[in-house]
Design goal:
Blueprint: H1 5-20, E1 36-42, E2 48-56, E3 62-71, E4 79-88, E5 93-96, E6 99-114, E7 138-151, H2 152-156, E8 163-173, H3 174-182, H4 189-192, E9 194-202
Length: about 200
């Protein structure tokens, strides 16, 4: 029986919440336990994606995400995408009590496309070495995001979650950038940048 990508995402989200709320997570090292879960629409990691993440560095300004995303067939062909994302929040602005803005967060991430039509290297029996310099499966990106973070305890009077973040993220990859500089005038900046929006729940 074929399971739709939407059901995959539901299973991932359900498993994460069940695991975090169960006694089993106390039996592994604390640093391995996810500190947040994320849902994102678009942004080069799938039409919809879900994952978990960790704050990094002592100041908690860095963030590392692990995501699974998909593109349904009617949106351009069924694709499954794994991604590892990092961003850093250098500036913090207090908008109101319990509401913070991180206006410009530089980041980078790598995506890996699953499936037999994708590969790390081009077939050497068909193409000369170096004929195509990029990988069809692996794609590095640069990103810039903006994030609003809400303190759940102050605003929603709950201790079940620590906070909720809403963010938008612009990104581009090495293939887009090279194509832009090789075709100056034919491509605009808006052609090579993609945008995603997401929701992050801090646990």
């Amino acid at each position: 029986m074929k399971i739709s990508p939407i059901k995959y995402l539901r299973y991932i989200a359900a498993l994460l919440f069940f695991y975090i709320g169960s006694p089993a997570h106390a039996q592994i090292p604390q640093f391995l336990i996810p500190k947040d879960v994320t849902l994102q629409h678009a942004g080069s990691i799938g039409f919809m994606s879900a994952g978990f993440g960790y704050p990094v560095f002592k100041n908690q300004r860095g963030h590392l995400d692990f995501n699974y995303g998909f593109v349904p067939e009617k949106r351009g062909g069924e694709l499954h995408v794994l991604s590892i994302k990092f961003n850093y929040r250098p500036w913090e602005i207090d908008i109101a009590d319990g509401i913070k803005l991180y206006p410009a967060n530089p980041g980078a991430f790598v995506t890996y496309h699953l499936g037999p039509q994708f590969d790390l290297h081009w077939d050497k029996d068909t193409y000369e070495e170096g004929y195509y310099w990029w990988s069809t499966a692996l794609r590095p990106h640069l990103s810039l995001s903006t994030e609003f973070q809400l303190d759940a305890k102050k605003l929603f009077k709950t201790d079940k979650i620590k906070g909720i973040s809403v963010y938008s993220e612009f990104n581009t990859n090495e293939l887009y950038m090279v194509s832009y500089f090789q075709n100056v005038g034919a491509l605009s900046v808006t052609d090579i940048f993609k945008i995603g929006i997401g929701l992050r729940v801090h646990l």
